[in-house]
Amino acid sequence: RATSALDQIRVVPNPYVGYSDIESPGASSILRGENKLQFRNLPPKCTIRIYSLVGELVDTIVKDDGNSFVDWRLLSYEGQKLAYGVYIYHVEVPGVGEKIGRLALIK
């Protein structure tokens, strides 16, 4: 069932703790890589929208490829770093349905 596949969508890591093992190492041992998390178990086509808790749209990711995941650099659609806190994500899959979940960015 396609709708039960929506239940398998995950955000990794969640919560995001200021640094994640999925980030590439930086240019040296004291520099860290790019901040990012992944949405996993995604279908080939979907749209992910991330909102603040007050309902402001933070970013939109349009996925249309053969991967089952997509990276998100933890930036707003304006390229600004996000504040620590809880965010809502909404995954919309055409012709199938949607999944709504929470993700947290903590120090």
Task: Please characterize this protein's 3D structure.
This protein is mainly beta. Helices cover 5% and strands 45% of the residues. It has one helix spanning 2-6, and strands at 10-12, 16-17, 37-40, 45-52, 57-64, 69-72, 85-93, 97-106. A 5-stranded mixed beta sheet has the order 2-8-7-4-5. A 3-stranded antiparallel beta sheet has the order 1-3-6, with no helix packed on it. Strand 7 and strand 8 form a beta hairpin. The longest helix is centred in the first third of the chain and has 5 residues, at 2-6.
The secondary-structure class comes to mainly beta
The biggest sheet, with number of strands, parallel, antiparallel or mixed sense and barrel status, is: 5 strands, mixed
Relative helix content: under 10%
Count of beta strands: 8
Our estimate of the beta-strand percent is: 35-45%
Put simply, the count of helices is 1
Q: How far apart lie the N and C ends?
A: 38 Å
Multimerization status: single chain
Given as residue ranges, the uncertain stretches (5+ residues, pLDDT < 50) are: none
Overall spatial form: globular
Q: Trace the largest sheet across and list its strands.
A: 2-8-7-4-5
- Following the backbone from N to C, one meets helices and strands in this order, namely HEEEEEEEE
Radius of gyration: 14 Å
Task: Give the averaged pLDDT, no decimals.
Answer: 88
